[in-house]
Amino acid sequence: MHPIAEKYIRKSALPTIFCPGCGHGTVLNCFLRAVDQLDIFDTLGLVSGIGCSSWTPVFVNSDVMHTVHGRALAFATGLKVSNPRLNVMVFTGDGDCIGIGGNHLIHAARRNIDMTVFMLDNAIYGMTGGQVSPTTPADAKSQTTPYGNPEPPFDVCALVTSAGATHVARYTTVQPRTMINGIKKAIEHKGFSFVHIISQCPTQTGRYVYGMTKPDEYVRMIREQSISLTAAEKRSTEELKGKIITGILHECGDRPEFVETLSRLRRA
Ligand SMILES: Cc1ncc(C[n+]2csc(CCOP(=O)(O)OP(=O)(O)O)c2C)c(N)n1
Ligand SMILES: [Mg+2]
After folding, report:
1. What confidence category does residue 79 fall into, taking pLDDT thresholds of 50, 70 and 90?
2. Distance in angstroms between the alpha carbons of the first and the last residue of the chain
3. Which atom belonging to ligand 1 lies closest to the Cα atom of 53?
4. What are the domain boundaries of the chain?
5. Are 93 and 54 a contacting pair, CB within 8 Å?
6. Residues of the chain with pLDDT > 70: what percent?
7. Does the pLDDT of residue 268 top 90, yes or no?
8. Which of 1, 98, 118, 247 could bond 134 through an S-S bridge, CB–CB 3.0 to 4.6 Å?
9. In this structure, which residue's CA is closest to atom 2 in ligand 1?
10. Whose CA is nearest to atom 7 of ligand 1?
11. Is residue 94 lining ligand 1, measured as CB closer than 6 Å?
């Protein structure tokens, strides 16, 4: 076993539930490297909802709350308020976070509560067999949109930015080094940090949405679509159609943080 895995993985929970070629394992790998580099393992309070993505923290041998579908942010809010010294982090999926959990998301962003949310976006409800999600591309076929998806996908980064998140970033599983550095920055930011991670699901999205038979085709597609924010700034809107813009998309340091506001009000 790799020394990082040896140090931090909950071995009694292995094997993981991830299918071969799933991107969620890469996110776990990058997360553990970021935690190791920041040396914050003892302060972790990990929270997740339900879905393949929500299983990610279960394989970490720290304090973990694997809760109910769509409600991870509600549990995480309670945890952070009751123990502000914890480094609270949420692992959630596109369905868990912006489908059933969308309302919790906008209010957590509005409060600017100090936590980091990792939304693992495979553009589908992976765990339950490939139903359409709020980030499934328009026109795409899924198990519940056999004629094509009639809805446009949500721009979740724009959503949380407008709701009040103070650190918003996007990374993909095909650029792990960039993701590790990005995860560290998001964790170090005080306030509500939202990290949108494009993570491939060859089993459902690859098969139904993209008609692909191999995970490597899917990974290549993500690599071809990705462009850093710095490079994107030199391109026209037309040239950026269908591109995945990566990097820190929004950062703001002048909004009060929720737990600090609560404690100020209590003291007054
Ligand atoms: C209240 C409730 N509704 C529906 C479900 C069924 N369910 C479990 S996971 C899931 C979707 C998960 O999708 P996502 O959050 O995108 O995670 P992924 O598996 O794709 O990583 C659904 C609908 C549930 N467990 N609880
Ligand atoms: Mg999903």
Report:
1. very high
2. 53
3. 21
4. 19-267
5. yes
6. 100
7. no
8. 98
9. 69
10. 128
11. yes
Tens-place pLDDT, residues 134-173: 999 999 999 999 999 999 999 999 999 999 999 999 999 9
Q: Tally Cβ neighbours within 10 Å of residue 121.
A: 30
Structural tokens at position 90:
């949420």
| The token pair that represents 159 in the structure block | 């959503």
Residue with the two structure tokens 């895995």: 5
pLDDT tens column, 86-137: 999 999 999 999 999 999 999 999 999 999 999 999 999 999 999 999 999 9
* Domain 19-267 class, CATH top level: alpha beta
The pTM (predicted TM-score) of the whole model is: 0.98
Cβ of 93 closer than 6 Å to ligand 1, yes or no, is yes
124 lines ligand 1 (CB under 6 A): yes
CB of 101 sitting under 6 A from ligand 1: no
Asked, as a colleague might, if the bond just before 15 is cis with ω within 30 of 0, I would say: yes
